[in-house]
Amino acid sequence: EKGNYRHYMLKEIYEQPTVVAQTLQSYIHQAENRMALPQIDFDLSAIRRVTIVACGTSYYAGMVAKYWFEAFARVPVDIDFASEFRYRDPVLEEGGLALFISQSGETADTLAALRYCKAAGQTVAVVVNVPTSSMAREADLLLPTHAGPEIGVASTKAFTCQLAVLAALAAHLAVKKGRMDRNEEHEVVRHLLEAPAALNAALDHDDDIAAMAHLVAPARDVLYLGRGPDFPLALEGALKLKEISYIHAEGYASGEMKHGPIALIDEAVPVIVLAPSGPLFEKTVSNMQEVRARGGKIVLISDEEGLAEAGEGCLATIAMPRVHPLIAPLVYAVPVQLLAYHVACVKGTDVDQPRNLAKSVTVE
Ligand code: M6R
């Protein structure tokens, strides 16, 4: 039930601190400060390559995970949309882990890709939210998200729980491959366990986001920019806005702006910039200045330090807690979800049941 919430989507956005904590609990051995994955009967340290396949929001979770697998475990990662992967004759080498990410566990293209990989002899792992789903049943390694039933068509809490599982899996793989020592593992555990409180702190800015949604609602087009592991969040923000507000939106890697999309910039196109403090902050800010120099209207989402440095002259700013870069993609999911939600409310669209969309895409 929706309880006191106006929509399921809003309720599910607010459940994130709790369900992410629940999910992390089943992947972290708290007393020992270590990763703890479900028992499996094959040797993860033998994995030489990871192939990630998914659709929509689950695909964006996979994009974030690629950064983590590469940075932590130094394992090469391929990622593809299921609808592309299954028809392109992919090269699958021995010792590969095929990783499927799906809230429903029933998405037709993802399921077909899973069966293809299984037949090709890959080890099949799935990150799914429905433990009784087809994908859960057919996998060698089941990695459940504990988000609980997700009713809103726009995926929210499933996404942040997928990220929590994927971060744990990447760290676990790194440990197994001897790429991460005990101290580094402790640090990762510590940062992951900070996520629920940081998600709560992000939710505290709901009213600020509601108050500025009318600035974005009249736009015909909106751009989202992010870098590194926050680039997929730009794509996710654009997808959320498209789905529920019907505003055309695109996400770009910040550094790609000057290779074309900057031609679109004028005062009618709000540019949402995701820029947490961290090693990539300065780079993103310089891309933001390029937008501003062309009359672009910027909504900057950053922490206090970031806003103090670059917040001046923006159309609006959204403050986030200062967090470790590892958990920034989870925390920055909240403002992009809430922004899409409040813009949709301003526009009066059907948030939980947007036109033309179904919760689970079981046709090709
Ligand atoms: O159930 P799945 O995670 O496999 O679904 C994949 C996509 O259909 C899904 O994420 C879709 O993009 C959502 N409506 C996004 O909000």
Automatic annotation (TrEMBL):
- What does the UniProt entry say about where the protein is found? Cytoplasm
Highest taxon above the source species: Bacteria
**GO molecular function terms attached to this record:** transaminase activity
Keyword Transferase tagged: yes
Give the main localization category: cytoplasm
Q: Which reaction does it catalyse?
A: D-fructose 6-phosphate + L-glutamine = D-glucosamine 6-phosphate + L-glutamate
Look at the named UniProt entry and state the broad enzyme category this protein falls under: transferase
The record's keywords, sorted A to Z, are: Aminotransferase, Cytoplasm, Glutamine amidotransferase, Repeat, Transferase
Isomerase is among the record's keywords: no
> Where along the chain is the active site annotated?
K359 (for fru-6p isomerization activity)
Under which EC number(s) is this enzyme classified? 2.6.1.16
SIS domain residues: 40-179, 212-354
Assembly with partners or alone: Homodimer.
Q: What does this protein do?
A: Catalyzes the first step in hexosamine metabolism, converting fructose-6P into glucosamine-6P using glutamine as a nitrogen source.
What is this protein identified as?
Glutamine--fructose-6-phosphate aminotransferase [isomerizing]
Please name the source species: Tsuneonella deserti
Gene coding for it: nodM
Q: Which residues of the full protein are shown?
A: 221 to 584 of 584
